[in-house]
Amino acid sequence: MKRKRVRKEFILRLYVSGATPHSTLAIVNIKKICDDHLHGRYHLEVIDIYQELESAKRDQVIAVPTLIKRCPQPLRKLIGDMSNTERVLDGLGVRERQMPGIEP
Amino acid sequence: MAKVKDLVDTLNHASFPKVRTGIEGFDEITAGGLPRGRPTLVYGVAGSGKTVFAMEFLVRGILQYDEPGVYMTFEEGVDDLKENFRSMGFDLADLIARKRLVLDHVTLDRAEMRETGEYSLEGLFARIDQATQLIGAKRIVLDSIEALFAGLSNVVILRAELNRLFRWLKKRKLTAVVTGERGRERLTRHGLEEYASDCVVMLDHRVSEQVSTRRVRIVKYRGSAHGHNEYPFLLTPKGVSIITVSGFALEYKAIDKRISSGITGLDGMLGGKGYFRGSTILISGTAGTGKTSFATSFATAACQRGEKCLYFAFEESASQLTRNLRSIGIDLARWTKQGRLQIRAVRPSRHGLETHLLRMDELAAEFKPSVVVVDPVTPFGPIGTFVDIQVMLTRLIDFLRSSGITVLFTALTPSDVPFEESAAGVSSIIDTWIVQGDRQVGDERVRNLHIVKSRGMAHSLRLANFILTDRGVEVLAAATSVPMEKASRVRHVTVRRNRPGQALET
């Protein structure tokens, strides 16, 4: 297997609503997950829906917190406080990289 | 006890303010509209007209009651809605531009979503909040918020959030219409009735023999009187039109005035004075017994009084009708020229029942006749079930009667079916019912008639012969009128002797 490994850049946008417990927890959780798994190759933007409602509307953000992964494709919306790490990694598409049989 | 409690409930809440929807017929069956500042659940099967109902509630609110509104759509897109409602004459784009309406499309794609923990629906709240603030909304539609259940899987959170949403709507004093899909075990698929429990409206849509019938029912209305029936409704080019056959609107003033049937001998049998003005008359009989002659006699009599008559001819063209009737001395052309008679000849199969009904309504509203003739109603058979026709007739009669118009229908009876059977349902909406027939005497066919019923007046129960002369219909054995009290005694004798095949109920 001579496939060239492309280290894709993750462009993430986290919508929160003020300093609610869910939002605070989500910020903490996603930062840790990103640092652990996507170190150096992610860009995370945190947006308060009340500050940028138009942007939240465009992204069809109903539930808060919502993490939008625009890059790499496909588009994913991760909703919730990001406390289920497995689900977050699955949603980001990071899990498969660590599976045996695929490049280390 | 329950009744006393209901009554107390009603009295306590009697001051609940209501909001007129502006939807035709709906404000009557709810005695004033929807509960102000509260959510109402409108549910039904797909295609039952929920979206039309909801949108009309909003648009009429804006146009007629100066109440701006927000439409949150979870299904149809904004452009689709604009397009669909343009045909109904609702210019949504204009209302949006004038800041009277907000149309907002919320989409949820489950395929791209992953749930990673606890969340709230704050995004939705913020959005609704912004929209309502923007235009100072008094009304809101959520169509259908059940889509959330398809997009989000955490039902516990969803239920808690919906609860919060409805409380929030109430706090904001928004009059809301929430739509829901009809469910199997509960009213709606996801039990929305738990949240919007003040007022629940069901819309139904059935299709039988390719004819659709829509019905609406007020399932629940806390603290308010309301009609309990299923009311048929139409989706007309102008929106929802509910047919309040037996609703609050059923308060016609019975008119005591009498009008001539146009046939002297028949007037004699009808207590000497003819039909009641504003009543409904049915003339039925087998083929060729002279129904149209009776109908046109009646129409002519109206014209002679200087009144206007609208004549729906479903079997003949206006010119055919005019020519044929000339042979018995009835001059329709004279009255059409003078503008007192309008003959509308339509093939029944060309439109659905709904369309016919609407056109008849419209024409009657335009021409303002005092008398309407439908000759005959029976060819509607192939395009609608009996119940549908009955509904249609009831609707038409209701409309005409409320305007004080006298209606005369003719109906063709198949010779092998006793008419009492085929018209059992219609009978209840008919005031005066005349049956024509013929029998063979020697080598001659003799036409005859008898009055099956004529509400509220003394009438003859004899079988009378009649002939068609070149001066119109002439009733020969113009029987003397028999007082109502004697009716039951005379009836049997008459029926048995003359018409063994058509025994009446005893």
Structure description:
The complex is a heterodimer of chains A (104) and B (506). Chain A contains three helices and four strands. Chain A is an alpha+beta fold and 104 residues long. Chain A has a single domain, classed as Glutaredoxin, CATH 3.40.30.10. Chain A has a four-stranded mixed sheet with strand order 2-1-3-4, with helices on one face. In chain A, strand 1, helix 1 and strand 2 form a beta-alpha-beta unit. The radius of gyration of chain A is 14 Å and the shape is globular. With 506 residues, chain B is an alpha/beta fold. In chain B, strand 11 and strand 12 form a beta hairpin. The C terminus of chain B is likely disordered. The chains are: A alpha+beta (104), B alpha/beta (506). At the A-B interface, helix 1, helix 2, strand 4 and helix 3 of A face strand 6 and helix 6 of B. Strand 4 of chain A pairs parallel with strand 6 of chain B.
